[in-house]
Design goal:
Length: 358
């Protein structure tokens, strides 16, 4: 039985990743050991983490100034780890507020220094990306969320003209589209969407922006120490990193980011075009700022929402409910979701619309 999983994260991974991960739990590459019992300071794990880092560097086209780190604590830990490492007492960090996740990042950053929210789309339910803004002089860095998982907006043109280091939360669109990743000084992303599984977080850090910080940083939260220890400061989430490696190998075999981006574009276009053609559904996001990863929409008449969910469940479609804070629906189209799954969903959407007309 096929299940069509559109969860926002943890999200669907390719079937081959599940198969290989299952095998590795029983016997990792003929060693007679389970991947779950392999130590983080063994050669076996060193090979896994080296290959995973190498693949990320290759897929993202990173230069030598950018270090790939595997960290603990989810995307949310980065909300305070970033200012802890980059924001000195008297300095200012500029933040753009485009949704729930960026506002959480702002809240944490204020614990470490001055934060100025230089732009926000809160006035219109976070339905657009603010494009006109200035940043204060002497800004340490500019932080924004490249894709807003809950609200369904995405930066399609990056604000690269501000002359300050750029720090981005790329949790929900990393590896989904071609970008010049070297233009960012710090990228962080929770793994449970496009990289791999929950339990590990990736950060890409430009070594040159790590200056002296006046307040002491706890060892486990210090990027410099993670770089020096090659991401193995303490016990690594071995299985989570191994699963990321399997998923990165899969992405490379698909033709890398350039190939997956084309499919991601087709998936999003198919779904948006279907919704736009049916008056029963509405999307509130500014068209030019629409996310290709998280498609958020509503039913004009909310009393029939449950009927729609029930029909989807009957057709083995799951994970389409909107985030609890915004309601409506959200379909997440991360890399591992095939076009064929979106084709199934679109047929069910049309069937539901027809049923309402009868
Ligand atoms: N940032 C974004 C854009 C997210 O979508 C999420 C999780 N959905 C997070 C941060 C938080 O990640 P975590 O739950 O791993 O802390």
């Amino acid at each position: 039985m096929s299940i069509y999983n559109f969860n926002a994260g943890p999200a669907a991974l390719p079937k081959t990743v599940y198969e290989q991960a299952s095998k590795a739990i029983l016997n990792y590459e003929g060693t007679g050991l389970s991947i779950l019992e392999i130590g983080h300071r063994t050669n076996l794990f060193q090979e896994i983490i080296d290959e995973a880092k190498g693949l990320l560097k290759e897929l993202m086209g990173l230069d030598n100034a950018h270090e790939v780190l595997f960290l603990h604590g989810g995307g949310s830990t980065q909300f305070f780890q970033v200012p802890m490492n980059l924001l000195n007492d008297k300095a200012t960090a500029a933040y753009i507020d485009t949704g729930i996740w960026s506002s959480k990042a702002i809240k944490e950053a204020t614990l470490y220094g001055n934060v100025e929210v230089v732009a926000s789309s809160k006035d219109k339910q976070y339905s657009y990306i603010p494009k006109q803004f200035n940043i204060p002089q002497e800004t340490s860095f500019l932080h924004f969320t490249t894709n807003n998982t809950v609200e369904g907006t995405q930066w399609h043109t990056m604000p690269t003209d501000k002359g300050v280091p750029l720090v981005v939360d790329m949790s929900s669109d990393i590896l989904s589209r071609q970008l010049d990743f070297n233009q960012f000084d710090l990228i962080y992303a929770a793994a449970q969407k496009n990289i791999g599984v929950a339990g590990v977080t990736m950060a890409v850090v430009n070594k040159n922006i790590l200056e002296e910080i006046s307040k002491p940083i706890p060892t486990l939260l210090d990027y410099k120490q993670h770089i020096a220890a090659g991401s193995i400061l303490n016990t690594s989430p071995v299985f989570a990193i191994y699963t990321c490696l399997l998923n990165l190998r899969w992405l490379k075999a698909q033709g890398g980011i350039a190939s997956i981006e084309k499919i991601n574009h087709q998936k999003a276009a198919l779904l948006y075009n279907t919704l736009d053609a049916l008056p029963l559904f509405k999307t509130i996001v500014n068209k030019e700022d629409r996310s290709k990863m998280n498609i958020c929409f509503f039913i004009e008449n909310p009393t029939i929402e449950k009927q729609f969910v029930d029909l989807c469940t009957k057709e083995n479609i799951i994970g389409i409910e909107g985030h609890r804070t915004v309601g409506g629906f959200r379909v997440s189209l991360y890399n591992a979701v095939p076009l064929s799954a979106v084709q199934v969903l679109v047929e069910v959407i049309k069937k539901f619309a027809n049923m309402q007309m009868c």
